[in-house]
Structures are given as C-alpha cells and as structure tokens.
Amino acid sequence: MRTEAIPVHAVPLTAAQAETMAQLRIKKHHVAIMLLHWFNASVWLLELLTGLALISSHYFRVVPLWYVSIAEGAFGGRANMLHFHVALGLTWIVVFLVYGTFGFRTYLGEVLHKEIALDRDDFRWLIVRTLRILGRSNEPLPPQGSYNAGQKLFAFMIYAMIPVVMVSGVVMAFQLFGPAVVGWAIVAHFAAVGAVVSGLMVHVYMGAVFPEEKSAFFSMITGTVDELYAYSHHFKWWREVKLAQAEWEQRHDRGRLVPTEPAAAAPIAGNSDPEGGQEQTPGP
Amino acid sequence: MSRYAMVTDLRKCVGCEACTVACNAEWSVPAGFARTHVRKTEIAGTFPNLTSGIHVAQCNQCDRPPCAEACPSGATSQGADGIVRVDKDLCIGCAFCVAACPYDARYINPATKKVDKCDFCLPRIARSEQPVCVTTCTAHAKYFGDLEDRGSEVFRLVYAEGARRIETASVAVGPNVYYLGKPESLALVATSFPPRAPRLPAAGEAWRMAVRPLVMLAVGATFLGQAVAFFTQLAKGENDFED
To answer: Does A246 score more than 50 pLDDT?
Structure first.
C-alpha cells in the first residue's frame, strides 16, 4: 500500500475488506509489557485479598469478619498474612524499580510522552463509549490512538497512585518517620488502593467481560491484535502502523534492483511482499 | 476462663516507685518511658483536715478496650483471660491505640518502633508467677489474681472490701485495676487523674469519617454502573456488540 492510499479517516469497510482484515495481525505489546501486566495483575489480586483482611478494626474494616477469619486460616495466622503481604509488596516494588530503570527508554518513555495524552477525540470517546455500553447510542466511536481514552485515564490514575501505594507501604512496613507519618501512611495506602480498585473494576470489566473489547484482552496474551479491531477501535494507531509499513516498503522498493528474470516481466506494480499482496485499501 | 485483676491498696502505698523500677528492669523499658506511673495528688482541704493521695497507674486491661477498637491491624486484642495484649508482629507503630487509651497507659517503644504497655506480666503468669510489680512492692500494697475465682484475694478485696475502679460517667470501659483506700483520698485520686475520652489521631479520624466512606462509595458506584452495563449486555445479546 502506498502512503497516499492510507485513509485519513476511518471509512466504512466492505464485508470482504473486513473479512480480510480480521485475519491479519498487528503487533501491539512487547513481551516485557505482557509479562509485567500479568505479574502486576497477580500481585494486585493477592495483595488485595490479604490487605482487605489485614484491616480488623470495625472503624476501618471494609470486609466482613468471616472473610478475615478465612484469610487468617488460609495463611495460618494473621502475622503470616502480614508477612506475606509485605514480602510480596516489596518484591513488586523491586520488580517495578528494576523494570523502570532498565526498560524506561524501550517501553515506558514513548507511552508516557505521546501515547497517553488526551485529545479532543478522547473526550468525545468517553461519552460515546458510555452511551454505547448502555445501549443509548449507535454513534461510531471517535478514532483512538494505541490506547483509548478509558485506558489513558486509568493510566493517569495508576501513575499517580502507584507511587503513593509504594511509599506508604514501605513506611508502614518499616515504621519510618514516626507514628504520625505511619498513621497517615495507612490512610494514604487505603485511599490510593481504593481509587485504583474502582478504576481496576472498569479495566477488568472492559477487558474480560465486555464483548467489543475482547481483542484487547487477548492482545495481552498474544501480543497482537487483528487489523479489523485495530482499524475500528484504534484507528489513529492503525494508520500510524500502516504509514510506517508503507514507508518501509517504499524505501525498500526504491532500493530494489530492476527485475531481470523473465518471470518478472509480469506485474511489478505495487509490491511483491507476500503480506503486501493481502493488504486491502479500505474505502471507496 | 479467668478475668485477671489488680488491686492496689493506696493506704499501704508509700509512692516509692519500686514497682516502676522493677517493671522497667523486667521488660527492658527504654529510658523516659514506663508501663506503670506513680503520681501524687495535690494536697486538698483546709488545715488541719488535709487529704492527699497516690495514684499507681498501669494498663487497666479494660473489659471494652478502646485501644483494641482503634487498632487498624488487629495487633491489639483482648484474650479470653481479659488481658489486652499486643502482637508485635502485627503492630505497625501507628499509635492510634496510644491516642485511644483513656488512661494513657501506652507508648511507642523507640527501639522497636512498636507499641508497648503493661500486660500484667503475661509471660510470668504463664509460669504461674505473680506480676513483678506485685512481688517487688515494698509495702505489699498490690494484689493480683482472678476475679472469676471466688476464693481469690482480689475477689475478696473487690467484692467484700469494696475496692473501686477509676472511671467517670462518660468514660466507663470496664477497667480491671482496682484501688483500696480512705474514701476521701480515693475520691481525690479519682478526680485528679480521671480517664479521658478515647480519641483517634487526625489520620484515623480522617480515615474513619471521610476516606473509608468515600472509597466505599467510589467502589460501590463503579460496581453498580458495571452491573447496569452487564445486564444491558445480557439483555441485548453479545452479537449486537460485534462489529
């Protein structure tokens, strides 16, 4: 596909085009991101299950006492549960610090700089998305980058809250800076986790339950999404990928020798890349 | 089951603080802190009818301990024997309990950064020994025993001799430390060193009154919203959502 042939706006696809695009896959996530995601998910699950049971006072408790008893029984006592909670939390912090230090340029830098800034389309998307989930609108979703507005909002929340969770956790684990600071650390820990959890519930629902975004869930396992999903849910990102692909192809076509074999007298317009042959030009 | 209690006979007490010294030594209490406090009241009355008193304070192992209620992590709890104890493994040193104790019987140990207080010498009780403040008392003013045991000395002192607790109308949490003495002297001690209302530090109050309700509201609202979305999805059927 030539650069000019890539549509600027998402135009409706024909059935045949959609069929073909559903078969093609685009790489979405690095393996490092996927591993981190599932590591993070497991840690959060376990930390939530133990953390909830660690609050025992009825002033502050958010789970019933029978749950506290079950959790204590499962861990062979409250102290063990706390040790587990702290040890896993510290492991999580170390993994994130190592990852952040060595992987920042490769994995996080680009995400932070361009992929999570909200634009006009994103605000519109948030409204349309909500209305569509509730069956109140059939308006097409505004075009999105590699992360949609909901994912971006969740990312903002995560970036703001995770340092709070980490720092307050360390303060409590080692009783740093005196009782007053420890007291506020508990409150900060609870509030930050509460904020993350309310976002996390939407995150899990959209990923695992809501049918329209199912591809996003599987992309965290395979690392790829099909082109149809990319086109309809992340058009701006799809276009970026296609542009990059087209430029690469054009650059390499330019460097290619003029075919000498007789067979090549046949059509050489377009390109001979096997993938290129399957590409569709969506649009009229 | 037992309900341990301490009775201090203020008629015998000379205020020598041997109990505090013995306790500090027995439990390696850091300098500047103590689990028992011996305090003297001002002299009251008009000459020649003067009254004064000595107050020997320690953790009261209250029947309804405000400290256990305030402890977020469950480190402070009340055993079946009525003794309020601190599990050092669970304590995170937030000092909510220190603010909650009406008798100011708790402190944060700077060495361990965790809370400490009198527990009637639990390890000694386990060895069938009396608390160290009782055995060391130079005037033999302290009695320790089980109020559930009708034959015990403390039972007799509390229920026959009329040893009294130090509480007020507003702060009555069932202390298990009793005092004997001349009525006017006891009254002076009770009014000079009354229990204060239990409280939470600012952080605990903010957590209890604002942060916890807000978090529950946020999570609850999100859950409700998702329930609506989910049932919409069920009602519509999944195919409608497919592109």
So the answer is: yes
CA distance A138 to A128: 8
Give the burial class of A174: count Cβ atoms within 10 A of its Cβ; 0-12 exposed, 13-18 middle, 19 or more buried: middle
List, in sequence order, the alpha helices (H) in chain B: 18-26, 66-70, 96-100, 122-126, 132-136, 153-159, 183-192, 202-206, 212-236
CA distance linking residue B152 with residue B130, whole number of Å: 13
- Cα separation, A226 vs A53, whole angstroms: 41
pTM across the whole model: 0.80
Cβ contacts of B70 on chain A, cutoff 8 Å: 57, 59
Q: What is the pLDDT of residue B38?
A: 92
Task: Say if residue B198 is preceded by a cis peptide, omega within 30 of 0.
Answer: no
A→B interface, C-beta within 8 Å: 18, 54-60, 62, 78-79, 82-83, 133-135, 172-173, 175, 179-180, 182-187, 190-191, 194-195, 197-199, 201-202, 205, 209-212, 228-229, 232
**pLDDT of the residue at A114:** 64
- CATH match for B4-192 among 3.10.450.750, 3.30.70.20, 3.20.20.70, 3.40.50.150: 3.30.70.20
Domain boundaries, chain A: 1-27+223-252
On the question of pLDDT at A262 being above 60, the answer is: no
Cα separation of A183 and A50, whole Å? Answer: 19
H/E segment holding residue A173:
helix A149-174
HSE on the CB side for B205, CA within 13 Å?
8
DSSP state of B164: B
pLDDT digit string, tens, across residues B49-77: 888 889 999 999 999 999 999 999 989 99
Structure-derived torsion over alpha carbons of residues A54, A59, A64, A68, reported in degrees to the nearest 10: 20
Q: Say yes or no for a CB contact (<8 Å) between B96 and A183.
A: yes
Segments making up each domain of chain B, as ranges: 4-192, 202-241
C-beta of residue A49 within 8 angstroms of C-beta of residue A88: no
Comparing A214-223, A262-271, B53-62, B163-172, the range with the smallest average pLDDT is A262-271
Find chain B residues with C-beta within 8 A of A210's C-beta: 229, 233, 241
Is A83 in Cβ contact with B243 (below 8 Å)?
A: no
Is the pLDDT at B1 greater than 80? The verdict is no
Q: What is the mean pLDDT of chain A?
A: 79
Residue A214: per-residue pLDDT: 76
